[in-house]
Amino acid sequence: MMLMISDLIEKPLASWHGQERYGNEVLECLTIIFKSGGCAWSKCRMCSYRYERYSGQNSPGTLTGYLRAQLAWVIRQHKTEEYDMVKIFTSGSFFDPDEIPPEFLSDVAQTFKGKLVIAETRPEFVETEIISRFIDILDDGTWKTPLYCALGLETSNDGIREKCINKGFTFLDFKKAAALAHSVGAGVKAYFLFKPLFLTETEAIADMRTSFADTVVHADMISMNPCTVQRNTEMEHYWKRGAYRPPYLWSILTLLADAPVHVTCDPLGGGRKRGPHNCGTCDYDMVKGIRDYSLNADRDLITALLEIRCECRKEWEYVLSSEKSYCMPLTQ
Ligand code: SF4
Ligand SMILES: [Zn+2]
After folding, report:
1. Left, alpha or beta for 242 (phi > 0: left; psi -120 to 50: alpha)?
2. Which residues have CB less than 5 Å away from ligand 2 (the ion)?
3. How far is residue 331 CA from its own chain's centroid?
4. Can you give the pTM of this predicted structure?
5. Where are the domains of the chain?
6. Is the CB of 122 under 6 A from ligand 1?
7. What distance in angstroms lies between residue 260's CA and the mean position of ligand 2's atoms?
8. Ligand 1: does its nearest atom lie under 6 Å from the Cβ of 152?
9. Which CATH superfamily does the domain covering 5-245 fall into?
10. Measured between alpha carbons, how far is residue 283 from residues 113, 130, 193, 252 in Å?
11. Which segments within 3-115 are labelled E, that is strand?
12. φ, ψ for residue 31, nearest 5 deg
């Protein structure tokens, strides 16, 4: 007997309820990470999300069945009246038709009709027809901008994106995708990666400052992800050999303090060896402060955190002034 789709017990990789800042409001937010067909690119040096996929050759029908079962699980777990915003991640791109079959996109838009949706995708999958159709089903007039395309730009510097991340697209690709999203009524959220491989702490800070300045005109929201060492990645390979250190929390605070717009930041793994960290003594307060700031946008909080007295500040300042970069060849 064939297994009915409704009999499938599938859970998303994760789903949780939290809060997110949106303009001057704080919204209740449901975040979902769907297990999908997997990232079509799968080559970024720091990423292990790409391993989270259904293995083997699944037909689009089978994949849709798995995804529908995950969505049904989410609906059972989270009451619709308890959240206004939905953040959707996959182990790749939500708008890649090979990863997420289009009929499932329609299911998601229908399920979350009237909610504010932020969905992550690579820029090459921002296409007029797909985005417009999604908005048409999702929009019930509640939100001026019911959908935001979240694009992992990582940096505005093409050299750093290619050499240190291996992301496989350019700043121009991002700008074109952002313009297309805006032209069909979607907003744009840009994700930046703070301190990829091969940059000194000082170079990484400078890279984020330039990236913020270059991107504010193209993105409606900016979020910065400080690097965390994920398992089975090239970044982990270097980290295990002492050739990579995640960023200091001091550096994150410095960047948030003088960013041209409110930049949100959730320092995953904050205070741990694999995540952004200081000395271990001051980490807890700083990580909590950075999370609080993402919600309340209170810059005085950041200023106060930067004034915490801790021995490791001297170490950080020494690193900023003395760390040297090592060359990566431009040609092979
Ligand atoms: S970071 Fe995104 S684009 Fe890069 S391999 Fe991971 S899922 Fe794919
Ligand atoms: Zn400290």
Report:
1. left
2. 278-279, 281-282, 310, 312
3. 30
4. 0.94
5. 5-245
6. yes
7. 27
8. yes
9. Aldolase class I (3.20.20.70)
10. 40, 43, 20, 12
11. 14-22, 25-33, 85-89
12. -110, 135
